[in-house]
Write a structure and sequence with these properties.
mainly alpha; 2 domains; Growth Hormone, Chain: A
């Protein structure tokens, strides 16, 4: 087994840390939502907006960020994103009322959009084949572990300090990443690629309008012009975005990428799987506090088995997928997660974590460990290195949009209230989405050969 060079190890460390802050901040907020509601006010709609304000800008701008990464250099874009993310995190922590908090979360998401495509593009530019699969496995273990560990860290900060400190967790990894970036010596010259800013506007405004309609619909109803007008406008703008991608000389989301079989089918699987993960993370984090009566720390600890399994198994799963192909792992993993979601149906009014939640967390962790690294390798390995930044951005945008839409539809899924019946409804929907991801993977994913990149000069 080929060992990573010193430069490749540095690239992996930077990629992990840069992505860590965005993944962490996407999930750390879930256990803080009840505390935010208690201090600043607002019901489930405000809680949805605190999550989705971040996801809207992250999802809508991540495509633009991928294009910027390819055009102006991955290291430069990453450095800008890290500094902006740190400033926005301080603004979130200092927010005096819900509107300011939501606006600051949106800015934070915009900064986060600059980080993920650049980090994965660094891996794609310096590694290929089995080595790349192993590197993506390491990246996956820690970044997905950050998603799962977020509720635990958030819970500790909420219980021991304040929910405001939850958003300052990023300061240390941001500082370390900036230091490591200064040590990285890779060619990172601008390529002179034109950036399609209008496509970025169409995508951002279209997604924002559509999500506004989905979140506010339970309050105002579909018959209200305040709902159906932005809904129609959002759909129209997003269709306009797709049409522009076909005709633009420099599209943010080149539709030609989807001619690669694994890229197209892998992104469809991503849509189902990440919608399920976002729904499950939100519902479990909030219900265990508001429904089961656990503290924020205990609610965060509930998902710790998933984190441990991800760290232990993801890198190995990535290596196996590099040798055997990703199809089997991308099929079995989501189906296992569907079983884990169904195990949450055992949660009852007389709550018992050890028998009702822990088995589900273990099965979910096993399935997630088998899925994420092979999925990332299948999608990005299907695209040549020159377009790795935009390919990474497309895949990450799809995963974020999936989470964005499912959280926006939360009130509809749970029947308006996150009580026990609503929790069970969310478990059924989660299982169905996971199963769909496994079936799509079995139908569409194939083993492909990787081309070795030229060594960096």
């Amino acid at each position: 087994m080929t060992a990573f060079s010193a430069m490749q190890r540095l690239v992996i460390a930077i990629a992990v840390l840069a992505s860590f802050v965005t993944f962490l901040d996407g999930t750390v907020v879930t256990v803080a939502l009840p505390a935010i509601r208690d201090e600043l006010g607002g019901g489930i709609t405000t809680q949805q907006w605190v999550v989705d304000a971040y996801l809207i800008t992250l999802s809508a701008l991540i495509l633009l960020a991928g294009s910027l990464s390819d055009a102006y250099g991955r290291v430069r874009i990453m450095r800008i994103g890290l500094i902006a993310f740190g400033i926005a995190s301080v603004a979130v922590a200092a927010a005096p009322e819900p509107v300011t908090l939501i606006i600051a979360r949106a800015v934070q998401g915009a900064a986060g959009a600059l980080l993920v495509p650049s980090s994965l593009a660094l891996i794609m530019a310096t590694m290929r084949g089995e080595l790349q699969s192993r590197a993506i496995g390491v990246w996956t273990a820690f970044t997905t572990g950050a998603q799962i560990a977020g509720p635990l860290l958030g819970g500790l900060f909420v219980d021991l300090l304040s929910w405001r400190w939850v958003f300052l967790i990023n300061v240390v990894p941001i500082g370390v990443t900036l230091v490591l970036l200064a040590r990285l010596r890779l060619p990172d010259r601008p390529r002179g690629v034109r950036v399609d800013w209008w496509s970025g506007v169409l995508c951002a405004v279209g997604l924002g309008a559509l999500v506004f309609a989905l979140i506010e619909q339970p309050n105002l109803g579909w018959g209200s012009p305040a709902i159906w007008t932005p809904g129609i406008v959002g759909v129209a703008l997003f269709i306009g975005f797709l049409v522009r991608q076909r005709h633009s000389p420099t599209p943010l989301m080149p539709l030609s990428l989807f001619s690669a079989r694994n890229f197209a089918w892998g992104n469809l699987a991503t849509l189902f799987i990440y919608a399920a993960l976002s729904l499950n993370g939100f519902v479990v984090g909030v219900y265990l506090q508001e429904g089961a009566g656990l503290s924020a720390t205990a609610a965060g600890l509930a998902s710790l088995p998933i984190t441990i399994l991800m760290i232990l198994l993801s890198s190995q799963a990535g290596a196996w997928a590099g040798r055997l192909g990703p199809r089997l792992f991308m099929t079995v993993g989501p189906l296992l997660m569907a079983v884990g979601a169904l195990l949450l149906l055992t949660v009852a009014e007389e709550f018992d974590y050890w028998w009702q939640v822990l088995p589900a967390m273990i099965v979910l962790g096993l399935g997630l460990s088998l899925t994420v690294a092979p999925l990332t390798s299948a999608v990005l390995g299907a695209i040549d290195e020159d377009r790795s930044g935009i390919a990474s951005a497309v895949n990450n945008a799809i995963s974020r949009v999936a989470g964005l839409i499912v959280v926006a539809m939360l009130s509809t899924i749970v029947g308006g209230s996150l009580n026990l019946d609503g929790f069970h409804s969310a478990a059924w929907v989660t299982a169905a989405l996971m199963a769909a991801g496994g079936v799509v993977s079995w139908i569409g994913i194939r083993k492909t050969a990787f081309a070795e990149p030229a060594p960096p000069s």
